[in-house]
Design goal:
This protein folds into 3 domains: 115 residues, PAS domain (Beta-Lactamase, 2-Layer Sandwich); 126 residues, PAS domain (Beta-Lactamase, 2-Layer Sandwich); 72 residues, lambda repressor-like DNA-binding domains (434 Repressor (Amino-terminal Domain), Orthogonal Bundle). The chain is α+β, with helices and mostly antiparallel strands and 340 residues long. The relative contact order is 0.07. The protein contains 12 helices and 12 strands.
């Protein structure tokens, strides 16, 4: 039931009120003559004064954004054929501003069932499109950040149960089937599943980010080290909504950490490589370490660890370290060097 305003102009004032509050306008199109009628709300939607322009499909088509005119022409053909239509398009108002318009149309038939008139209502949906555009931008930024981090993003409910993941590639983890927490737990190393699940639940109780290292299963059932940071997402009222975690691959860091517990036995290859990196000759190193060139050459001929207990090795390593060389002794793989 439509409630009308009181008075002789009740219907007109009711229509004006509805159009104004909904940012809408009504139009009709005589399919035989091509004449159109626009309500005050439709004029306002187009940004045109009611007395300044005679309503016509030509005027409306000229206001349609150039990129949307093929769609508009297709819709016009549909209406001329007597079919209802729903579509969205952009218009360019006389002041140069662009607005999004959503239109819904229906047909009126004569007693013989032939279409004679198309009527429609159009809404200004610019704000909705701007919101969607902002969402698209944020989604693109989020996806770019995930790709840049070369990791996976975890999502969990406010109680700390993992619900889904989003990943940039297969470097960190293989995605299992299912959404239950127990399926996600199978991605972690058996020795760490209980602790990881406990950390997620701990994160649900904390307002501070939580960071920890763990291993994640790969396609070939091997495991790689990853570092995960979990943060809480809160509503505007400060209520916890969900958890978001980012895992990045740190396998290289774990394998080649200079702080490894493996015995740090200097190799001849490391000494040669360090000299080359510093552009030092054997004589240069000998003078700085106060060791004979013959001893340095003898050390450099040994590719593996030098087991000699001589103090000279410690001196060589100290001199090269002070010159900017970092010696690495990984748990897996060969010892190496890199600039500090």
């Amino acid at each position: 039931m439509l409630i009308l305003f009181d008075g002789d102009l009740g219907a007109r004032e009711t229509l004006r009120f509805i159009e104004e509050k909904l940012h809408a306008g009504i139009w009709s199109w005589d399919l035989a003559s091509g004449d159109m009628q626009w309500s005050h709300g439709f004029f306002a939607l187009l940004g045109i004064e009611p007395e300044s322009t005679k309503p016509s499909s030509t005027v409306l088509s000229q206001m349609v954004h150039p990129e949307d005119r093929p769609l508009s022409e297709a819709v016009n053909r549909t209406l001329n054929e007597g079919l209802p239509a729903e579509w969205e398009f952009r218009i360019i108002r006389p002041n140069g501003r662009i607005r999004w318009v959503a239109t819904h149309s229906e047909l009126l038939l004569d007693p013989d069932g032939h279409p004679v008139k198309s009527i429609g209502i159009s809404f200004d949906v610019t704000k909705q499109h701007e919101s969607l555009q902002a969402l698209d931008i944020m989604t693109g930024q989020y996806e770019a950040l995930v790709r840049a981090a070369q990791g996976i993003v975890w999502f969990g409910d406010k109680d700390g149960r993992i619900t889904k993941i989003s990943r940039s590639d297969d470097t960190v983890a293989e995605r299992p089937v299912g959404r239950q927490t127990e399926h996600w737990m199978n991605m972690f190393h058996p020795d760490e599943r209980a602790s990881v699940e406990g950390l997620w639940r701990q994160a649900a109780l904390s307002r501070s980010p939580l960071r920890f290292d763990h291993r994640i299963r790969q396609r070939d059932n091997s495991y790689r080290w990853a570092r995960t940071i979990i943060v809480q997402v809160f509503s505007r009222r400060g209520e916890p909504m969900e958890l978001v975690g980012l895992s990045t691959d740190i396998e290289i860091e774990k394998r080649y950490s200079p702080n490894s517990a493996r015995p740090k036995q200097l190799t001849g290859t490391q000494i040669r490589g360090a000299r080359g990196m510093l552009a030092w000759s054997v004589k240069d190193l000998a003078e700085r370490a106060k060791i004979s060139p013959t001893t340095i050459r003898r050390y450099e001929q040994i590719d593996g660890p030098i087991s000699s207990p001589e103090v000279g090795l410690e001196t060589i390593q100290r001199v090269l370290t002070q010159a900017g060389i970092e010696f690495m002794f990984p748990e897996i793989g060969k010892p190496g060097i890199r600039p500090r």
